[in-house]
Amino acid sequence: MISRRWWILVRYLRRLWVRAAIYCLVGVAVAVAAILADPYMPSDLPRKVGADAVDSILSIIASSMLAVTTFSMTTLVSATTAASSSTTPRATSLLLEDTTAQRALSTFLGSFLFSLVGLIALNTELYGAGGRFILFIATLVVVVLIVVTLLQWIDHLAGLGRVGETITRVEKAVARAYRAHRRTPYLGCVPLLQDVPDGAIEIQHDSVGYLQHLDVKALSAIAEKGDLDIYVRRRPGGHCDPSTPIASVVLHDASATYDAALTAGIRAAFTLGPRRSYDQDPRFGLIALSEIGSRALSPGINDPGTAIDVLATLVRVLVPDGKEERDREDRDISYPHVHLPQLREDDLIDAAFMPISRDGAGLVEVSIRLQKALAAVAAAAHPEMRPAARRLAAIAQRRSLEKLEFEPDRERLVAETGL
């Protein structure tokens, strides 16, 4: 379980401008390093390898890389816009965090700055003969890097922004969050299965937003230092505002007084944002996948095949594969003074399948595939998912039977499905 600082650092490293800035700094540093290393190079070596040609090579790179960067950025924006309109806006952040796209854009921009700084230094005669040789070698490395990146970028563009590729990216994000949830369903805290004790001190957050990250390690440190128990009232993904408590505090010593300064520390452990995050919130990823299937069933798109593909994806996420132990949950309590409410299985199943069961109720092929998907989850997923899957399967079948007007379709649904 990473702390709030590490989580914020990881979030920043996923941003496009951070990677681009790092590549630009590296490119500028290499160009400047050639100036500093000039006194240590033999003066006649550059003439033997033709380092004087570096001027024209850098000019080509400088004139082409800016155009390539602009074109690539336009392509990325168009892909995210297409994915947002054809799948779900919740997938846009995953496309912008795509490592291949970030690496390509950063390489092109870094190469442009490298060539620009090199040309400026050459025209101001900052390079000696040795420095020109080092710059020539670095330029050859940059050319190879550009060619390799261009080939990868061209291959990557074939699927960027397409529905299937977007589903795959959302699947990876939700699978990672769901597997982490199954390993530590309570984040190492004590399960909060009952009501908060009477007399608990309620703490509200002073901001409004979705809980993106919960630093349970920081809460545990506060609880141990203050000799108290903290009852968390909101799991990651929940909406917080000043009118509802985010946590409750119970003092171990009834005669002790609560230090109001602890409130700021508890609030700091709750990182809020305008939108939900995939990291600690498996429901958000399931909702995103279900939205893709639901949008495919809209009259304007009318693509039942995508909805069926989403159902198969949801089964892959919820059902462990052969390499994974089915009961791999880690019930060890690492933070005995922090209590966390459970994430109900009904909520997970509803988030994954409810929209498709509603919008696809009038299509027999989608209804049958939904029943089979829920049957697979009930049979092969975690045992605690079985009642929730059966409950939704019964509701979905009843809804479909009311929507389907053709009697043979109704008979087929009843004959081929059922839990």
UniProtKB/TrEMBL annotation:
What keywords appear on the UniProt entry?
A: Membrane, Transmembrane, Transmembrane helix
Q: Which domain of life is it from?
A: Bacteria
Give the transmembrane ranges: 20-37, 57-83, 104-122, 134-154
Q: Which Pfam families match?
A: DUF2254 (PF10011)
Q: Which InterPro entries match?
A: DUF2254_membrane
Name assigned to this protein: Putative membrane protein
The organism's taxonomy opens as:
Bacteria, Pseudomonadati, Pseudomonadota, Alphaproteobacteria, Hyphomicrobiales
